[in-house]
Each structure stands twice: as C-alpha cells, then as structure tokens.
Amino acid sequence: MNRHTITINGLDDYPRAAREFIQHMQQGRIFAFYGKMGAGKTTFVKSICEELGVEDAVNSPTFAIVNEYESREGDTIYHFDFYRIKSIEEVYNMGYEEYLYSNAYCFLEWPELVEELLPEECVRVDIEENEDGTRTVAITTN
Predict the structure, then answer these.
(1) 15-50 pLDDT, tens per residue?
(2) Which of 51, 64, 72, 75 has the smallest CB count inside 10 Å?
(3) At residue 62, does pLDDT exceed 80?
(4) Which residue range is the domain that position 106 belongs to?
(5) In the chain, which ranges are continuous DSSP H helix?
(6) pTM for the complete prediction?
C-alpha cells in the first residue's frame, strides 16, 4: 500500500496541488474522494480537471450524478457525486459499470455510499480540512 500526502494552503494553491496529484496518479483511473461536507472535494476535482485541460465548466454533478468532460489529450473524464442517491439500485440503473470499466478517468465524490461497487484498483483520496484552514489530501493506492 502506497500513501502520498499533499497540503493545500488556500484557494490559490489548488492548481499546484492538482498538478502534484496528477503526477501521483500513476496508472490509476478510478479515484474515490472522501471528506466531510465542505472539505474541498469538488474544488479539488475541478482543479484536477482544469489541470488536465478540461475547457468546459466543471461543476458538481450533484443532481445529474455524473458529468462527462474531455481532457486536452482527448481522455474522457467522468465526475460523479453520489451524495443524493437513495439506493444502490439507482447506481445499478445508471449503468455504473460502463463508466467505471471504460478506462476513462473517474472521480467519485461521496463514494462511501457505493463502496461495495468500487473496483479493487480504486485509489482512495481523503481530504481533510485542518484547523488553520489548510487541507490535507492523502492518496492511498493498493
């Protein structure tokens, strides 16, 4: 198990932290972002997408459950927000396998609600807000 930690020192530091995150993505394609409400999950995913060259506006897919973007290299990126799902059947019905096994980048917010569906190679990303306002991002790979 490998673990890498990134500190985000404020809103202006998200792009640098996203670049560092991208350097540590390795061969990972599926990333589960854990953290309390307001920890900065959506802001961090947005910064990662921007650093990957997404030109579309990156927003939380809270109501759509998933948004699709394209990187400057032509890679597909799926951004999920499972916060509002009421049952695992909703995720089955949306055809989650097609997304997770597409070899596209998948960034999942609120993955604790669908953990039983996550593939073994999923990379865990914990984001925690510290007392001084900084954020700690811990990336754990198997």
Answers:
(1) 999 999 999 888 899 999 999 999 999 999 999 999
(2) 72
(3) no
(4) 2-141
(5) 14-23, 41-51, 88-93, 96-100
(6) 0.93
Phi/psi at 140 (5° precision): -120, 120
Alpha-carbon distances, residue 131 vs 26, 36, 67, 111 (angstroms)? 31, 14, 32, 25
Q: What angle do CA 44, 50, 53 make, to 5 degrees?
A: 145
Do β-strands 105-109 and 123-129 pair in parallel, antiparallel, or remain unpaired? unpaired
> How far is C-alpha 52 from the chain's CA centre?
13
Neighbours of 119 (CB within 10 A): 11
CATH code (residue 119): 3.40.50.300
Q: Which long-range contacts (CB under 8 A, 24 or more apart) does 51-58 make?
A: 51/15, 51/18, 51/19, 51/22, 52/22, 52/77, 52/105
CA 70 to the chain's CA centroid: 15
Tokens found for residue 86: 């009421």
Question: Tell me, what's the pLDDT at 26?
Answer: 81
Model confidence over 71-130: pLDDT tens digits? 999 999 999 999 999 899 999 999 999 999 999 999 999 999 999 999 999 999 999 999
